[in-house]
Every structure is written in C-alpha cells, then in structure tokens.
Amino acid sequence: MQIAIRREPIEGERRVAATPATVATYVREGYQVVVQRDAGAASGYPDAAYFDAGATLVDAVDLTAVDVLAHVRPLEPATIAALKPGAVTVGFAAPAGELDAVAELADRGVTAFSLELVPRISRAQSMDALTSQALIAGYRCVLEAATRFPRFLPLYMTAAGTIPPASVLVLGAGVAGLQAIATAKRLGAKVSAYDVRSASADEVRSMGGTFIHLDLDEDADAAGGYAKELAADRAARQRELLTPHVQAADIIITTAAIPGRPAPRLITADMLTGMTPGSVIVDLAAESGGNVEGSVAGVDTAVAVDGGVITLVGMKDPASTMAFDASRLLAQNIAQLIGLMTVAGALTPDFDDEVVAGACLTHDGAVRHEPTAQAVAERNGAR
Amino acid sequence: MQIAIRREPIEGERRVAATPATVATYVREGYQVVVQRDAGAASGYPDAAYFDAGATLVDAVDLTAVDVLAHVRPLEPATIAALKPGAVTVGFAAPAGELDAVAELADRGVTAFSLELVPRISRAQSMDALTSQALIAGYRCVLEAATRFPRFLPLYMTAAGTIPPASVLVLGAGVAGLQAIATAKRLGAKVSAYDVRSASADEVRSMGGTFIHLDLDEDADAAGGYAKELAADRAARQRELLTPHVQAADIIITTAAIPGRPAPRLITADMLTGMTPGSVIVDLAAESGGNVEGSVAGVDTAVAVDGGVITLVGMKDPASTMAFDASRLLAQNIAQLIGLMTVAGALTPDFDDEVVAGACLTHDGAVRHEPTAQAVAERNGAR
C-alpha cells in the first residue's frame, strides 16, 4: 500500500505530515512511501533524509495512485476529487469549518480521519495533534510577548537597584495556556491564570501559576476537558470581574477556545484602557475570532492607553513558526493513528475501536461524525 | 544648579538618561531639573511622571544654561560647542571612537564624565553602566535566538515522543555572556560556554553552564576583568579548537569584546558549514566588527549549510529594545555617579576619589584619560 506526503500547498504552512523518522516507521510496517520533493524543506527535513529513510521522492504525487494521504492542513475539494474511491486521508480536516471539503470526501467515497476528532482518552494521547500543536502555541506566545515587552520578565537584583518580575496573566488554561504558564514561569515571571473550567485550578497550580477564582456561580466544564459557552449575562459578569486582573498585568496571554464555535470575547477595548504603557497582549485565538476586541491575526496593533501605548498581538499559525518540532510531533501523531489501523502492512480500520470510530470523519460515502453530518445536511438544505 | 535631560537626538535610541525616580533624587539633592518634553516617551516614561517628580518640562533645553547634562549616547560636537565652559556632562562618551567629540569637550572646557571609564571596583558597581546595559543584551539575545529557532529550547516529554533540549553555546563569558547562559538555562537549554579568560570558568558553572577548556597554553586575562587580544596564531588555534563545539550547537551567542579594539573574530564562514540547518547564531558584537564572519548589525543573514540554512543575527542596540528597564538601570547608574559628586546641592567633583578621577574624560581644557589623550594627540599630529 502506498502512503503519500505532499509539500503542503497552503502559503505560509511550513509543517510537513511526515518526518524521515515516521517514514522509516511506515517502511518498517510494510508501506511504500512516496514523498514530494521539498516536502520537508520549510520545516528543516531535507529530501536526502527522506530518501535515506526509504521514501521514493517524486516531483508531484500522483493522487490517483495514493492509498493513504497524510496531510497537515484540510484538503482542498479539488485534491479530494482526484483521489480514488476508498482512499484514506489522515490529517487536520477542520470538520466544523470546511463543509465543502467534508461533503466532497463523503461523495468521493474517501475514508477520512480527522485529527481534530481523535477522542481525548489516555489510549489516544499519542495521536492527539491538537494537544501537540497547542504545546507549541503555548510556548511560542510567551516568547512573542517577551520580545515585544520593554522590560525583563525575571526579577533582577542589580547594583543599580532591583527590577521586579513581570506579571503575566494567562486566560484559558488548556494545553496552550498551561504551557504558556510553564514558559512564563521558566522566564521568571509572576504568573496568574483564569479558566472558566474550575477543574483547571489544580493544573494551573502544578505549573506554578496562581489560579484566579471569579464569583460566577456557574461552571463551564464540557465533555473531553473542553469549555462550553457561557450565557451572555455570565460572560459580561466574567469580563467585569476580570477587569482588575487585566489592568494589573504586564503581559496577557489569551488562549480560550470553544470547539466548533467562535472564540469567546474575554477582553473588550474598554478593559484595556487601564493597562500600563508597554504592556503586551498575545491573543492565541486571533484566527478564530479573537479573545480580545481588536486583535487581528498576524498583526501587531498599538492600542492607546493613559500615558502611552500597549501592543496587541494577534497570533497566526504559531506552529509554523517552530515547524521543525511542530512537524516532529504532528508526524508522530499521524504515524501513531496510522499504526493503530495497520494490519500486516495494510491500512485496515477497525471501526469497533473507539479511537478509530471517533476519529473517522467520512467513510463509505457518509459523514460519520454526527455534528458534522448535521451541519452538512443543513447546508445542503439551505441551498 | 541645573541638571538637564534631553530627548536623545540619535534615531533609534529609545533610552533616556533620567527616569522620574532619578529626577526625584536630583530634586531632593537640591538640583533644579529640566526635562525636554517626550524625553522618556520612547522608553515608557511619560512627561507627567517627570513633572510629578519635580522636573520643569521644556520644548527644547537651553544648552547655554545647563550646569549638568545627563545623556545616553555620545554628544555631537555641535551640542558640546553650545555648552558653557565649566559645564559637566555625564553619559556614554565612547572615548575610543568619538575623538572629535572628545577634543571638542576639552577645547570647550567641559568637565565630561564617561560611563565607559567608571572603574570596575566594587564601590563603583552601582555606577557601572556597561554592566547594567550588558545585562539587558545578554538576556535579550537569547530571546532573539529562541524566536528564530524552529524548535523548543526545553526538553519536552510528550505522548508523541521526547524532544531533546536545544544545545546553546555561549562564546565570551563577561556580563552579557553570563546573562545569556542564565537565560538559556531558564528556558531549559543545555548550555556550554567558552571564554579566553580562564578565570571565568567558575562564573560559567555558577550560572549552570558547562565551561569549555581549549588547549591554548595562553591565558588572556587583562586588568578590570576584561580580555586582551590574542596573537594571530593563537587566535587561529582557538578557532580550530572551537570548530567541533560550533558545529554541535543549535544556538550560538557570541559576546566577545576587547575594550577599545575591534571585536575578535571567533567564528569564520568555514566553521559554519557543518552546522545543523535551522541553527541560529546571535552576534552581540556585530556593531563593533562582529565575532562571526558575515554578521551585519541589525540584519538577519541566511547562511547555506548542508541540507538547509542557518540564521546569523547581527544584534543592534539591544538595550533600546528593552528601553524601559535599560533606562531604569542606566538612569540609576548616572544618578549614583552624580550623587557621589554632589555636595550641598552642587556638583563638586573630588578628583582625589579614584572613581571620579577614573571616570573623568576631560576637565579644565585637557583630556584626562591617558589612552584617549594619546589617541587625540596622534590624530592631531596626523592632520
């Protein structure tokens, strides 16, 4: 069976779906591996290393011959249309957003596995690409904040006086938020964090952060460790209670996301006005609507406050800024999922396995993921 | 007596020679303090804070009325010519480079104190601006490296496999180098360091770094904790012995400087070829000739290596990137030096004090710093 890896076609995407190490795994498992030339160039994996691992290098992947296509970004409908019926795809599929592609995958009879749908159970941790990529994002956003901050993060006691540590506030304590806490602590900052899920308090503390309790009399833990959306009046009360914490912070990292929904608005423009000039906010959710009013993905915005300006950073695609390690983890996640489904050198999904069934987006002409199937049906009905 | 602080006239210089805190000190000591409007704007100190501290804000400082001029960058000859004879200046004067300005200071009868000349003795630590600004540079260059490095610095043990820590090599273990070691360690990297001064081995270890001993059979400790220049054959041998360490490093920070001389060339282009693609070199000495062949101050250069490219970063003015804290320390250094010379609200230098005498560049029409006096005399002779 042939596994193919293409150079990611989307501009700016630097990751690759397989590294030489995972190619070697596929070869050992009995697959024939085809890699497009320069597929790993932007992430630091040269063609020669893929060749040495046992891959066949090609100028362009012949999609009609592919049995398994490993990919990073959601596939374009045109790419899907070129696959043979029964082909298998494994990668990010953005099931909530890319409904055209999902419909095409089903129509084409492709068996698509979506990394976003891998169940958050311990047996599937090694396949959890949302987690592995969020690790990168959490680390990265602290570096982005630190380089824009006109002060030290650590405490310094010098002959010319003592410099106090920076105060970092992290909003949203999922994987990215916890990693941001850990990285800011490494750099010596004083870190506090808030999450609408009260269950995260212990995790925040274990990373060295101080957990902020807000008197919201509602908890928002949803299944799978994700957060659910707050009612409008609760969200307003949340913002009101957060305001003094926002204004006391030198650096704010926002990481709040709700699966399949726009990012919650945690910070409004009004809340920024009391911040100290020079402060920096990094909005990790800028690409999905933004936790902070006014943030634009990929753009630094100067916001006027009393006595100066603060910098609002809309993070864009943090994983691609560290493409080597991001690809290393992502490729491993994909290889683990493919390995789980491999029997005697052939990809043979066992739909009785909850990981396989959970990760499956389309199979045999149907959309298998129920919420996505409904969204596709609604979209078709609306046409 | 009037102390004046101007907005630094040099493009890109974001620091300021006094903060509201040091203005308050001057006022307490009995000085009248004049601050040019927006002097602290770029470093995050608003006019209102200077006013509250007791300063008089002016649109332009009347240089003819100034008794003491505190400054960051070396003064322009035109500025010096406007000062009254007997005026005192305190700031960086670059005595080895700015000979025109030095001659003008002497000709004009200005009493100039150069922060570069403050003796490195423990009593003068609080006035040591080279040290305080090097602290900034050492911290900063690690952040610059980390944001350009396509991998994590720390070790990560994840469900998708273990990511090894980055290997950081620091060349030159003065204040900046030690701070770079400390910051890279904070971020979880494996750090080794080399300095031609064998005395620095213990300091490197105390920061958590591994000291690299090269078999050079010559030591290069000079007075004041600085390094002296190596003979050409020793320098070549040093490069040869450093090569395997350079090629094993993921990130290299070079900080080697020799007072009054061009920076030593520690790394040649040849030595880079064996480095791993994605590696990053930050040359802190780029503005004084560069420790690394090909580095250009303020520019990132991609250097081709086997299988990809590495990034060579020529650091430029790192202190201005963190102007708030850089100014805080620098202003304190200046205030300590002025405080040492203040008697009953007037600046009254006691030239029997070794700190005052050591820091004095010009006084009473003469260049007091012997090496600079010689350089000025040679320059005049050559005309």
Automatic annotation (TrEMBL), chains A, B:
Gene Ontology cellular component terms for the protein in this record: plasma membrane
Protein's UniProt keywords contain Translocase: yes
Protein name: proton-translocating NAD(P)(+) transhydrogenase
Gene Ontology terms for molecular function: NADP binding; oxidoreductase activity; proton-translocating NAD(P)+ transhydrogenase activity
Location of the Alanine dehydrogenase/pyridine nucleotide transhydrogenase NAD(H)-binding domain: 146-314
Enzyme class: translocase
Presence of keyword Cytoplasm: no
Function per UniProt: The transhydrogenation between NADH and NADP is coupled to respiration and ATP hydrolysis and functions as a proton pump across the membrane.
GO BP terms in the entry: NADPH regeneration
PANTHER family: NAD(P) TRANSHYDROGENASE, PROTON-TRANSLOCATING NAD(P)(+) TRANSHYDROGENASE
PROSITE patterns, per database record: ALADH_PNT_2
Origin species: Microcella alkaliphila
Catalytic function, reaction form: NAD(+) + NADPH + H(+)(in) = NADH + NADP(+) + H(+)(out)
